From TrEMBL:
GO biological process: monoacylglycerol catabolic process; phosphatidylserine catabolic process
Protein name: Alpha/Beta hydrolase protein
Record field: transmembrane: none
Gene3D superfamilies: alpha/beta hydrolase (3.40.50.1820)
Keyword flag Hydrolase: yes
GO molecular function, one term: phosphatidylcholine lysophospholipase activity
UniProt keywords, alphabetically: Hydrolase
Length: 405
């Protein structure tokens, strides 16, 4: 007579097989993620379009006012073609609406040149996935054009939307530079252009402005080109650090299973092709900088923004000794305690912190910043892709960069 297997034993066997299969899928995904092709797909998600049959030449289909937006194409130095939208600021659109809609009015190019001389302009660098028609991105253009009274130039990087090519770290940096060159060639003064990036776009913004300043560094002071400033909406410090903190769908920690095997995790990271190390370059920026992050961002923790802001303070702080040495010696440990206390006191002097009622808090650093302050605005809400739509955030941008009046 066959022995009957207890029901709980059968359930345990099924659970065991399930977790084995899950582990196998996880290892397979990690292996695939180590290939350059899959890394490109996962980091940029450029093949995820907002919708089918997109009409880039008809911005009005995506809730923008008639003739308020111009669909343009740019040519990069490496012969890629980029699609972009130029959105007129609300004040300019209101004042020139009759001319903009008239077929006998001056050329579109002339209107753009006049708008660039009349109002400040935001160069908007979007995050991964989707295109410039994504509803949340269109809402950013509308908010910037109305509340900040700015023109908006929104481009799709190479490989996105109707742009040609395949995305890469160097390629996206060149795309941002191409957009800058287009604005400058159409008459935009450099000090009137505010660079705003969201998520992946923050890394592009840091890379681009850093390269722009490095290129101009050898020129005479009067010949240097710097934007009005940089705004980083929900940034990450680097792709490598992002892997450690990223939650799939805001729930499942990507690298958590490998935390008990640090050597394996480090081995996986060695295969990173696209690094976007903003932490290594952000401190070198010589323009006013605003970092914005929401506490309820389930994609990228606000600790990334804190790390970027703290990098500016670390230059003026006494260095901490080796932690292992401190643990091995009572004397060093006591000294470490005193040093930590000094660092906290010095930090309070370097970064002026204040609460913004019903919005969040802000820290401001300005020591030795002849080109403007650095601020970290931490909001209570706003999420990841919509933190730039929080009106309190827009008000702070207007105040810091003297826009909207």
């Amino acid at each position: 007579m066959a022995t009957k297997i207890p029901r709980y034993a059968t359930l345990l066997q099924k659970a065991h097989l399930f977790f084995l299969a899950l582990g196998g899928v996880y290892l397979l995904l990690l292996t695939l993620g180590g290939t350059p092709f899959m890394q490109t797909q996962l980091i940029y998600m450029h093949n995820l379009k907002a919708s089918l049959f997109i009409r880039y030449d008809t911005p009005e289909k995506y809730d923008l006012a008639p003739f308020k937006t111009r669909n343009v194409h740019l040519q990069t130095a490496d012969n890629e073609t980029l699609g972009a939208w130029f959105i007129f600021s609300d004040p300019f659109y209101a004042a020139h609406k009759a001319d903009l809609v008239s077929p006998s009015s001056p050329s579109s190019d002339q209107h753009i040149r006049t708008a660039l001389r009349t109002n400040p302009t935001i160069l908007f660098l979007h995050g991964n996935g989707g295109t410039r028609v994504l509803p949340s991105r269109v809402q950013h253009y509308q908010a910037f054009a109305s509340r900040l009274r700015a023109n908006v130039f929104a481009l799709d990087y190479r490989g996105y939307g109707d742009s040609t090519g395949t995305p890469s770290e160097a390629g996206l940096t060149l795309d941002a530079r191409t957009a800058w060159n287009w604005l400058r060639s159409h008459g935009a003064p450099p000090e009137s252009v505010l660079v705003v990036g969201n998520s992946l776009g923050t890394a592009v913004a840091v890379q681009f402005v850093s390269a722009l300043e490095a290129e101009q560094g050898s020129k005479e002071e009067g010949g240097r080109e710097r934007p009005r400033g940089v705004v980083l909406l929900a940034p990450f410090s680097s792709v490598q650090t992002l892997l450690d903190t990223y939650y799939i769908a805001g729930i499942v920690p990507l690298m958590a299973p490998l935390r008990i095997f640090p050597s394996v995790a480090n081995f996986v990271k060695r295969f990173l092709v696209h690094r976007f190390d903003s932490l290594a370059k952000v401190v070198g920026l010589k323009v006013p900088l605003l970092i914005v992050h929401a506490e309820n961002d389930w994609d990228i923790p606000h600790s990334h923004s804190q790390t970027l802001f703290d990098a500016f303070l670390e230059q003026h702080m006494p260095a901490l000794p080796d932690i292992a040495a401190a643990m091995a010696s009572d004397e060093v440990a006591e000294s470490l305690g005193k040093l930590s206390k000094e660092r906290r006191a010095l930090r309070r002097e370097l970064a002026v912190a204040s609460e913004i009622p019903r919005l969040g808090s802000v820290e401001v650093f300005s020591k030795d910043r002849s080109h403007g302050k650095v601020a970290f605005l931490r909001t209570r809400w706003g999420g990841h892709s919509r933190v730039g739509l929080v009106e309190g955030v827009q008000d702070y941008i207007a105040e810091m960069f003297k826009m909207g009046s």
